[in-house]
From TrEMBL:
It comes from the Eukaryota. This is Heterokaryon incompatibility domain-containing protein.
Amino acid sequence: MANVYKFAWLNIAALSTGSDYEGFINEAREPRAIFGFRASFAAIIGTGSQDINRNLQGRPCVLLDGEVTLLWDKQSDLPGGGDWMAPLFTRAWVYQERSLARRTLAFATHGVFFSCDEAYYGRTSTFCAVAAALVDEALATGNAPSREQLQMEARDLLSRFDATWNGAVIDYTKCKLTKDTDRLVAISSTAHEVADSGIPREKRYLAGLWDINFISQLRWMTCEGRNTKPRKRIGTDGYVAPSWSWASIEAPVATCGAFYTDDKPIRFLADVTAADVKLATEFPFGAVRAGWVRLRGCLRAVSGSETHGTMGGTSLTDEATGENLWFASDTTEGYEMVASSAGLRKVVWVPHVLTALETMVECNVLVLSELSPDEETGDDDGTFIKPGEKVYRRLGMGNFGRIPSLFRQDKLLMAMGTYPEADEMEDIAREFVRNEVGFREFVII
């Protein structure tokens, strides 16, 4: 599919049709309605005087003698307008077509427009040209760079790569699929193209994520968990991806980009030590049968939960401190588990990322549920999961925090590590030392 759209001379897109049975050449093709009329400067300015040639002080004003031609210009369905919500763009299978095509002639409801690799500031928003742009910038160095410059450029490339893929995930998960089992397959050609870009050179695709800065890519969440059906489990019909992947749920997701430069106020509170997937075919960017990630971090128990109002959020109570943290479940399963005493006993949370901003010191967390000993883990040959190792499934994300002047009063924030005595937030984040007491390895499937 990548070759079809990448090497096609022209791609024709029928934006306004909902199916193959509808036409896209219609009577309402003219996108612009223009009405012209003339009016005096005085009428436009509104002097408030009976004598339109006099100003507000009643003095003669030559400027008010003139007239001007005015145009009322109505445009719709043009690039940058509502066409991005057109029926065609709600279909997930079309995302690859949009991201890989070099030239597109698009028929919208009220207009026709053209886009190509030079349509946006000389660079395209497609992955092909984005990858080329990154390579161009990486090679465009005058003098031999120093080691420090190379490190900075490498971090910058990684950051832009991560931001590019995060943007693709956000756009793609807004689209709909007839068969949810196609979720990884329908974006596989785009992922393949990204892998071929060589930025960064050594990277592996793992069910919608990349093993470059994997810990940061686990920072995704959805706001539609209360209406999202539970994800399928390993070995059942309809299984799509491991719980740590955004592809495991049928909902739009938001992602948080990576911060590679040293001056950004972010610190990771857990480490990814290994990750792997079992492919459904030989194609490394397609469907998977199972997936695992091993984290090293602190597993903290939950002693209670509370729902705040009929439309409010849900909070979890940390067993060790009695402090609360907000919880956003990926699906209805998470809310059901924390609402019952039996389910709550299986729930744990893991500190993930600490962020220090001018307005907030915040900690993002992963919320997990422990698997029963008889549940399928997908590790048939026993090469990934160690004997007796704890295995969990992701339920969702959580967070807690305080304003800068009060963060030292928060028991949970202080339990995350040691903070310097500095007042500047960037210094606090930069010199923060995480608390690794109780760190252990565990697996999420």
